[in-house]
Amino acid sequence: MRRLVGIPPIYGHESPASWLTRAALSQGVEVRELMAYVGLPVKHDPDQTLVGNALWNVAHVTGQAASSFGFAAHMFSGVRSIDPKGEDLLLWTKNGKPRYRYCPLCLHEPGCKYFPLHWRFKAWRWCPLHDCLLGERCPHCRCELQLPGDMLIAGLKREGVAHLGHCLQCAERLDTGWESTPHPLMEGLVAGWEKTVLENGRALLAAIFHRHFFITGNAKRHSLNSLTRFKKMGVLPHDLLLLSNQSLQARRSQRNATLRNHPGFYGGRSAREK
Predict the structure, then answer these.
(1) Which Pfam families has this protein been placed in (predicted)?
(2) Which residues of 12-26 are buried (b: 16+ CB within 10 A; e: fewer)?
């Protein structure tokens, strides 16, 4: 098997599915063809199958250092240890395809567009870098984001897209409306328990990385295997959090309307004027 040339490197926190999507475009082929060539099972989730001998083979054929896949391999092996099929921790479409959320502000920034692996986790609802909720669907066609996907034939006219800042279904930009994205913590748009759930998403991934975690107010260190028990107790209610950028925008508008009508707000009418 010949070694491929021109394959882009995988970024530190990039998911294997995102990298394969970009790598396929670099070779001018569809993802299925690339996966078959490098020995990955085409019908399986590459985020979870790029491990062991498969990882070494992919690294050799694509000219990558095996260590460059180390972070992804470590994280998803942690997932498999407590959730073998990824049913509880990872995002999926209704037809069982790997699904991702995305941060519009991350995708708006200059540089290579890619999907970090934490966007695949159910609990990761909030971007701590930009203080914003992740988008659930394309803002144009409302399709869920599935990876890996074919950039070569993306879009309604199958004309393709140049980078992962575009929806692979309709080819429109995913960062549309980024300038009006609410910042829930900075703007005070969430209740205390909602803030805790958002921040616990980051804590969950830290637990998977370190293979242990702590509970606030308890000095005992818990093994990663204990996470399943705590989840059943409702300590990680990320599945029940109904927040969205749309609901936060509605809260922002309602708060602003209340402030405008408040007697002490500049521009509002005082009780004497009424």
Answers:
(1) TniQ
(2) eebbbbbbbbbbbbe
In the chain, what are the domain boundaries? 16-177, 192-261
Tell me how far apart the alpha carbons of residues 209 and 221 are, in angstroms, rounded to a whole number: 14
Q: Which long-range contacts (CB under 8 A, 24 or more apart) does 20-25 make?
A: 20/46, 20/148, 21/147, 21/148, 21/149, 21/150, 21/151, 21/164, 22/114, 22/151, 22/164, 23/62, 24/148, 24/150, 24/151, 24/152, 25/151, 25/152, 25/160
Residue 238 φ/ψ, nearest 5 degrees: -65, -25
Beta strands in the chain (DSSP E): 99-100, 126-127, 132-133, 145-146, 212-215, 218-223
Query: Cα–Cα distance between 12 and 160 in angstroms, integer?
Result: 26
Over residues 77-110, the pLDDT tens digits come to 999 999 999 999 999 999 899 999 999 999 999 9
DSSP 129: T
pLDDT band at 240 (very low <50, low <70, confident <90, very high): confident
Cα of first residue to Cα of last residue in the chain, in angstroms, is 83
Q: Read off the pTM.
A: 0.90
* 160-196 residue pLDDT tens: 999 999 999 999 999 999 999 999 999 999 999 899 8
CA distance 55 to 186: 41
Which residue type, as a one-letter code, is found at position 102?
Y
Closest CA to 205 of 15, 75, 100: 75
